[in-house]
Amino acid sequence: MRNLGRSLTGYSQEPRELFLTGLPAQINPIDGGRLGRENCSMTDAWKSYPGAPIEGAVVCPLEDAVEGEATCVEVDGFPLLILRLGDKVTAFVNACPHQYLPLNHKSDRLLTADGAKIRCSNHSAGFDAVTGEGVEGLGLGACLDPAPVSVPQGQIVIG
Ligand code: FES
Predict the structure, then answer these.
(1) Contacts of 50 (CB under 8 A, 6+ apart)
(2) What's residue 19's pLDDT?
(3) DSSP character for 141?
(4) What distance lies between CA 98 and its chain's CA centroid?
(5) CA 8 to chain centre
(6) Is the CB of 121 under 6 A from ligand 1?
(7) Which of 5, 48, 92, 152 has the highest CB neighbour count under 10 A?
(8) pLDDT of residue 39
(9) What is the mean pLDDT of each run of 10 residues along the chain (159 residues)?
(10) pLDDT of res. 55
(11) How far is the CA of 71 from the centre of ligand 1 (A)?
(12) Closest-lying ligand 1 atom to the alpha carbon of residue 139
């Protein structure tokens, strides 16, 4: 996985505080941070995060998203995880629902060897790489928030 732009760990705020400030009302960390939301079909949840990019915002050139790897980017300071699997490009808010730490806070190796799961580098919560649904450990009962992306003219953009 490659990190583009400023490292998440370079925030002046603690990464967790970044997300705990102004969290969407329907997302309530409970029990020390574990996400209370269990409905992974809330596809617009990403819009409720502080600093969420507007539709049409450029994420990065397609060539910066390496096929078969997870790429962490920031769009005007907003952290996204980009996955390019074959011709399909998907994105999630780079915030683990366990404690709202960046998924790559401790390591940039997030995708499992088979490319099927994203595994948080903090406490190993596992999420389906296609849907973001929690499938292992602390990810069970929670989900990553997908952000819609498209690829017009070789650029990955929001929307
Ligand atoms: S922050 Fe704990 S598993 Fe991701």
Answers:
(1) 18, 19, 21, 22
(2) 56
(3) T
(4) 12
(5) 12
(6) no
(7) 92
(8) 58
(9) 36 47 47 48 77 93 91 91 87 88 91 94 93 91 90 94
(10) 93
(11) 18
(12) 3
User: What ranges do the domains of the chain cover?
Assistant: 8-158
- Phi, then psi, of 53 in degrees rounded to 5: -70, 155
CA–centroid distance, 74 to ligand 1, in Å, is: 20
Cα–Cα distance for residue pair 43/132, rounded to 1 Å? 11
| Non-local CB neighbours of 123 within 8 Å, separated by 6+ positions | 98, 99, 137, 138
Tell me the pairing of strands 29-30 and 34-35: antiparallel
For domain 8-158, give the CATH superfamily: Rieske [2Fe-2S] iron-sulphur domain (2.102.10.10)
Best residue for ligand 1 mutational test, from 17, 18, 34, 99 (most atoms within 8 Å of Cβ)? 99
Distance of CA 78 from the midpoint of ligand 1 (Å): 19
Could you give the CA distance from residue 103 to residue 59 in angstroms, rounded to a whole number?
A: 18
Q: Is the dihedral of CA 39, 158, 4, 69 positive or negative?
A: positive
Strand boundaries in 55-111, DSSP class E: 58-61, 70-75, 78-85, 88-93
